[in-house]
Amino acid sequence: MSGLDTKGRPIAALRTALSRTALLAAFFSAGAVNVAHAQPAAIVTPTVGGDPWTAAGVAKLSGDLDADLADAPAIRGAHVAVLALDTRSGAVLYARNADDEFQPASTLKLLVGSAALERLGPAFRFRTEVDVSRSMSARSSDALDSIVLVAGGDPFLTMADLRDAAARAAARGIMRVRGVLIDDSHFDTAPYPAGWVWDDFGQDYAPHISAVALEENLVHLTVSPGSAVGGRAYVAAGPAVNVGMFYEGCLAERATAIAVVPLATTGRTSAASTIDVGILPGGCLAVTGTIPLGSNPQSIDGAAYDPVVYAERAFSLTLHDAGIVPGTVTVVTGGIDDAVRWTPVPGLQPQPIWSHESDPLGMFLGPRFWIPSDNFVGEMLLRQLGFAAAGKPGTTDKGLAYERAWLGSIGVDPQTTTLADGSGLSQYDRITPRDLVAILQHDWNGPNRQLVLNSLPVGGARGTIEGIAGTPAAGRAFAKTGSMSHVRGLAGYLATQRHGAVTFAFNVDDWNGDYAALAALRARVLSRIVSD
C-alpha cells in the first residue's frame, strides 16, 4: 500500500473511477511512471558485473550514509534501518539496525511471492470449475438437479467469467436446475487474518478472504450528487447488489444479496469529496460522506461481507440471463461433508461442463500483485501455499507454517519474524531488514532472478516508488514498497554505476514525519549507493 490517510488507509485516489483492470491497462500503456508529469526513466537492470568494492570505497559509502541519516529531520524520533549488500558476494556494504524487527507493511509481499514461486512454480494457475449433478435416471439435459460452482481460490474471477460459464451451460441444452451450489471448501472460511484492524473492514484493500472470490470480493458502486446541497446522494451498484435503506434490517437483506445503505449526502460545489465505504453494525455496507453538487459521478469499491452470497446471487443472475431457470436456489459451502456436497440427493454424479484458469503466477506476480500491492492476492496466495503444503482446506496458519519452514531452508531464523498474514496489513507482522534482504538474495541466486526483476516496481519508471523520479536512482531501484500509518519500507535491488547489483532494505517505523521529506531522504541514500 502507498499513499495513506491519517488512519493508515489508502487515500481515495487509489479508489478511483477506473476499474482495477482499466487502471492496470492505463498504468502500463503510460509506462507506469510514479510522477504524473515526468517521463519514465530508462530502466537499467541490475547485473552481476562491475568493479569489486574496495575497503576504502565501502568506508567512504558508510561515512556518507551515516552523515545523510544523522539527525535528519525527516526521521526524527523514528526507528530506522538500512542494510545494503553487494549482491554478487553477499558482503555487507552498510548496516544500521539491520537485525531489529520492523513492521514490514507491504514489503512482506516479497515473502509470499517468493515462497509461492518456489513451492507452486511460475506456471501455477488458479482453477475454477462448474459441474452439474445429474440424476442417474434422467434422460434429458433439462432434468438436472444442481449446478455447482467449484471455487479454487482464484482472486481474479470476474462477472464475465460467470457469464461465460452460464453460456456454456445453456449451449449444452440445460434449461433448468433445482439448485445452485457453491463449493468453497478449497480454503477455510476464516474471513480475515489475525491483526487486521476493524475499521479496515468494508474497505477495498481489506476484502473478506474466501475460496470463492468474485471481482476480488469487491462490489462496484457509483455515487452521484443529488439535486441540492444537503440532499441524499444517489448510489448505483452492479449485479448481485441491492441498494436501499432496508428498514426491516440488514440481517434479513444480507442473506440474499450484498446490501448497500446510501447514507452519503450532497455537499457544496466548492467542497472536496469525502465519499467512503464502511460496514454497519448489522452487516450492510454503507456509503458515507459528501460529494460536491454538480460534480461527476464517483466510483468506489466496497468489500463484499459475504462472498458466498455474492457469488451465488451473481451466478444465479447469469444463469437466468442465459435462459436457465434456477428454481429453488440453495447454497452448499465449506464445512459440509464432501459426500453431501457432491451428492445432495442419492444417485447424483458430478459432471464438469466448464473450467477457467487464471494467468500463470509468473505472469500476474508483477502487474497484479507486487506492483499494485494487492492485499487480497497476497492472502489468497498464502492460503494456496497452505493447501499445497498441507492439504485441503488451505488456511492462513498452514500457509504461515510453510513460510516459516521455507525461511529456515534459505538460512533465515524464523524466530526473527512474526508472521500473521500474506499482505503485511496485519498489525502483528514483524521482520528484520536482514531477513528481507535474505529473501531477495535467494531470489537472485535462484532460477527466478529475471522474473523477480521484471515483476518489481522500478523507481521513476514503473510502479509507485515515490521520490525517486529525477534522481540518480531513477530507473535503477527495483523494489517493493510498504506503507502504513507510521510505517514506510522499501526493499529490493539497485543497479549501481560501477559495482553491479546491490541488495538493500530501508525500513522506518514509529515514525510521524512528513512523507515527502522521508521519500527525499530515502532517494538521497539510494542515489548515493547507485552513484558509486
TL;DR of this structure?
This protein is of the alpha+beta class and 532 residues long.
What does this molecule look like?
- With 532 residues, the chain is α+β, with helices and mostly antiparallel strands.
- Among the domains are: 52-123 and 361-531, 3-Layer(aba) Sandwich (Beta-lactamase); 127-190 and 307-357, D-tyrosyl-trna(Tyr) Deacylase, Chain: A.
- It is 28% helix and 20% strand.
- It contains 14 helices and 18 strands.
- The protein has helices spanning 20-29, 55-69, 109-119, 159-171, 250-253, 307-321, 338-342, 361-364, 366-370, 375-390, 396-409, 433-445, 449-455, 515-531; strands spanning 79-86, 92-96, 127-135, 146-150, 180-183, 218-224, 234-237, 241-243, 258-262, 265-267, 276-279, 285-288, 290-292, 298-303, 348-357, 477-484, 487-495, 501-509.
- The strands form 5 sheets. Strands 2-1-18-17-16 form a 5-stranded antiparallel β-sheet, with helices on both faces. A 4-stranded mixed β-sheet has the order 5-4-3-15. Strands 8-9-12-11 form a 4-stranded mixed β-sheet, with no helix packed on it.
- Helix 4 (159-171) links the parallel strand 4 and strand 5.
- The two termini are 30 Å apart.
